[in-house]
Design brief:
The complex is a heterotrimer of chains A (about 325), B (about 375) and C (about 160). Chain B is mainly alpha-helical and about 375 residues long. Chain B is built from 16 helices and 8 strands. Chain B has 2 domains: about 50 residues, no CATH class; about 325 residues, Cytochrome-c3 Hydrogenase, chain B. In chain B, helix 5 packs antiparallel against helix 6, helix 5 packs antiparallel against helix 15 and helix 6 runs antiparallel to helix 7. The chains are: A mainly alpha (about 325), B mainly alpha (about 375), C alpha+beta (about 160).
């Protein structure tokens, strides 16, 4: 039991490190290509070791705690944000065999854990003793608490359609087709609402008000430097991975290959591609989508942000839940 | 503990009203959205701005005092460093003032080159502003696209004038050297390039709903206020105040060209944005007309080696990318000015900031600052 | 109904923007970056580019500076200092000769006024733009070479 736990812990930490490196590199390259630049090119061929070099730099940087900061909370916040990101990873099925904790309430668990992020951001912003940080933290509070509702409701719609709270069961229900294909309009709407709302929960552009570098310099992590800043950054990317993994599992079939109907020639060909590749491909597709948003759109203002949630996303997802329920009851999906 | 008790008792006194407190926040001198070393002391109530107090002088280099010790030819490179994004036009202002005082005739080719350079500068400045505007609103990509198009302009400048930013090219009597043989061809290429790329500006930013929501109705400047604060350039023209010096007090042969003064009446950030985008199109039209009938001949009028202005006072204004730049020279008959005063557009445009941002949110202030298009070294001089 | 129209028009405008960034992402040919130290060999600056003041010398180590200090007077910020001495020519005339031409790169604004003012084309700007040095005093340069003399025509 202990050995299993150890193996899992080590592999999760390794996954984190690799994900952090890969996603930061990917973000920089995606941004660069959209901005007609080359991006990092110096460290290694095409700059692939750039993030590694940056990590070394961040580790060796001075750790600054500002005067008048609440030392305990200031140090706790980056730790908390990383732990929360780690916890949410547990019930996600990476392939048909790879799943850390096959919980029967996986969807519920992820929704509950990921909404804890706001506490660490509030802690970090408040403990920094900086007005920019505080404004950023308060914005983050308003933002995450409201967008949590839309995320939850779009999850509910999918849970209704698939009839299960367990991620592995949800994947199994998509054996004949992914929910995005067979769920009709409700699945599409839920998918879009989920992507928009979870981008907001990730504090990424166009919803990056807590950071808003042109307004608040760096928002809630203005005062953080060195490895503590790196932890905030890492957890942002891990959260992005988790959100994308949830979206991929619920809407795009998780590790399930592209199937149409039962037992036909097309499905057998698709089965030759290993499930892990399917999963990674879908996750990275959604990550790319979120990055695409970031490098295209301007930032919203705080009142527009809340208008979008309360006047648009929330009513739409409420109606969507009804529609999903109706489809489930009538069995209209195939 | 005492404080907490105070708050609690206050709350009890006021029913359910939470007690809030205003606070100050220093934006700048180092801040991503002030584009330089402008320092704004902002009084905030939550996110709402209650008061803005611009603190100037971080980049004061006493340009006017320095000019009193320099000959008229030596003043030119100094003026490039005031509004560095309109360097050519700043040079032109001093050159025109000196020419006016000495009654020197500038050859037609030099005048055509001046117009070309001035309009290219205007386009470059507006492109940089467009990119920075996107960046201030959180979209980083336009920044690089704007810089790409501006880079081609600076390359043309580099080839003809020898430098990229502070040219020292337009001098009293004409221009320093004739244009590079490739210059006209490159300008023609550039017009074609920009006519293709400008619609992209609209697709990524102007048409974007988020952008429109962020700018429409924000930072309203009424025409009366624009006039009374002395706003000029696109800032005033966004409020419907006609103030284009090229039209009203034409110089260097602008009166012979066919172009429109861009006017929008809304007075908000979106109107100021649209004025600048339209001005790029108008500048392209001007450049096309000049390039088509590019005169041959000398580029330097008859100037003495040592420039001495007659005794008296001389004033010349030009339209920079940001508004009206006035040069006021008092001469005592010597080879250096007795006093020189620059009426910079940015100083007046900044002074209106407090009027239009009070009551809006922090994010709106950033957007408004952006559409005022401030160049800080020109404010402090 | 305007509610749905609002959502649709917003989505269309946002998709348009994404189409543009997507276009650039999928067309790496549009990349405008030039990698500087790598392209050093092919990097060609225009011949008018002003990077550093130099005094060209011919093959007999002769320059064209007569020591008139016109450049020193023309410089707006005291970048140039011309030190001269008096030489007696064979036909017993006293003539000014250049001793040291000091150029302080750290103060130069590259305005080209010195080159414009020079009556004998003794100085010009080159395109060597890599100015960084490890010590500040290395930025103060002597432009005339050791043992150099003025060309015959200016003697």
């Amino acid at each position: 039991m202990i050995i299993t736990a150890l193996i899992i812990a080590i592999s999760v930490i390794t996954l984190f490190a690799v994900l952090g490196l890969v996603l930061v590199y990917m973000e920089r390259k995606v941004a660069a290509f959209m901005q007609i630049r080359l991006g990092p090119m110096r460290v290694g061929p095409w700059g692939i070791a750039q993030t590694l070099a940056d990590t070394v730099k961040l580790i060796s940087k001075e750790d600054i705690i500002p005067n008048g900061a609440d030392k305990f909370l200031f140090n706790l916040a980056p730790l908390m944000v990383t732990v929360i990101a780690t916890l949410a990873l547990a019930p996600l099925p990476f392939s048909d065999k790879w799943i850390i904790w096959d919980s029967n309430v996986g969807v519920f668990y992820v929704a509950a854990i990921s909404s804890l992020t706001v506490i660490s951001i509030l802690t970090g912003g408040w403990a920094s003793n900086n007005k920019y940080s505080l404004i950023g933290a308060m914005r983050s509070g308003a933002q995450i608490v409201s967008y949590e509702l839309s995320v939850g409701l779009s999850l509910v719609a999918m849970v209704l359609l698939s009839g299960s709270l367990s991620f592995s069961d949800i994947v199994m229900t998509q054996q004949d087709a992914w929910w995005i294909f067979k769920g009709h309009l409700p699945a599409w709407i839920a998918f879009m609402v989920f992507i928009i709302a979870s981008t907001a929960e990730l504090n990424r552009n166009p919803f990056d008000l807590p950071e808003a570098e042109s307004e608040l310099t760096a928002g809630f992590h203005t005062e953080y430097s060195g490895m503590k800043f790196a932890l905030f950054m890492l957890s942002e990317y891990i959260n992005m991975f988790i959100v994308s993994a949830v979206a991929a599992t619920l809407f795009l079939g998780g590790w399930m290959p592209l199937h149409f109907g039962q037992d036909n020639f097309f499905n057998h060909i698709m089965d030759y591609i290993p499930p892990l590749v399917w999963f990674a491909g879908k996750v990275f597709f959604i990550i790319f989508l979120i990055m695409w948003f970031r490098w295209t759109f301007p930032r919203l203002r705080i009142d527009q942000l809340l208008t979008l949630e309360w006047k648009y996303l929330l009513p739409i997802s409420l109606i969507n839940v009804l529609a999903a329920a109706w489809i489930t009851v009538t069995g209209w999906h195939f | 503990m005492e404080q907490v008790q105070n708050i609690v008792s206050d709350r009890e006194l006021q029913g359910s009203n939470l007690q809030t407190q205003e606070y100050f926040i220093n934006v700048g001198p180092q801040h991503p959205s002030t584009h330089g070393v402008l320092h704004l002391k902002i009084k905030l109530d939550g996110e709402i701005i209650e008061d803005v107090d611009p603190i100037l002088g971080y980049i004061h280099r006493s340009v006017e005092k320095m000019c009193e010790k320099l000959s008229y030819r030596q003043i030119i490179p100094i003026t490039s460093r005031m509004d560095y994004l309109s360097a050519h036009i700043n040079n032109q202002a001093v050159a025109l003032a000196v020419e006016k005082a000495m009654a020197v005739e500038v050859p037609p080719r030099a005048r055509a080159i001046r117009i070309l350079m001035a309009e290219l500068t205007r386009i470059g400045s507006h492109q940089l502003w467009w990119g920075v505007m996107g960046m201030d609103l959180g979209a980083l990509t336009p920044f690089f696209w704007g810089f790409r198009d501006r880079e081609m302009i600076t390359e043309m400048f580099e080839e003809t004038c020898g430098t990229r930013l502070t040219m020292n090219y337009i001098i009293p009597g004409g221009v320093a050297t004739d244009v590079h043989p490739d210059f006209i061809g490159k300008v023609k290429n550039y017009i074609r390039h920009l006519r293709k790329k400008l619609p992209e500006y609209d697709e990524i930013l102007t048409g974007n709903r988020i952008f429109i929501e962020r700018t429409r109705g924000v930072g309203y400047l009424s025409p009366e206020e624009a006039v009374s604060f002395g706003c000029t350039g696109p800032t005033a023209r966004g409020s419907g105040v006609s103030c284009d010096i090229r039209k009203w007090h034409s110089y260097d042969g602008y009166d012979k060209l066919d172009f429109n003064e861009v006017l929008f009446n809304e007075g908000d950030n979106l109107a100021r944005y649209k004025v600048r985008i339209k001005e790029i199109w108008e500048s392209l039209r001007i450049i096309e007309q000049v390039v088509e009938n590019f005169p041959e001949g000398e580029v330097m009028g008859k100037m003495k080696k040592v420039i001495k202005l007659p005794k008296g006072e001389f004033y010349q204004r030009v339209e920079t990318a940001r508004g009206e730049l006035g040069v006021y020279i008092v001469s005592d008959g010597g080879n250096t000015p007795y006093r020189i005063k620059f009426r910079s557009p940015n100083f007046s445009n900044l002074s209106v900031l407090k009027k239009i941002v009070v009551g809006s949110k922090i994010a709106d202030m950033v957007a408004t600052m952006s559409t005022l298009d401030l160049v800080i070294p020109d404010i402090d001089r | 109904m305007s509610y749905i129209e609002n959502i649709l028009s917003t989505s269309v405008s946002l998709l348009k923007g994404m189409k543009m960034t997507g276009y650039y992402f999928s067309h790496p040919k549009e990349i405008y970056t030039r990698q500087y130290p790598e392209n050093r060999k092919t990097l060609k600056l225009p011949e008018r580019f002003r990077a550093e003041l130099t005094m060209p010398h011919d093959e007999f180590n002769r320059h064209r500076c007569s020591g008139c200090t016109a450049c020193e007077i023309a410089c707006p910020n005291g970048t140039i200092k011309v030190l001269t001495y008096m030489e007696t020519t064979p036909d017993n005339k006293k003539k000014k000769r250049l001793d040291t031409f000091i150029y302080r790169l750290s103060m130069c604004t590259f305005c080209n006024l010195c080159v414009d003012s020079c009556p004998s084309d003794a100085i010009k700007f080159n395109q060597h733009f890599e100015h960084s040095v490890t010590e500040r005093k290395q930025l103060t340069k002597v432009l005339n070479r050791q043992g150099s003399t003025v060309t015959d025509e200016l003697k």
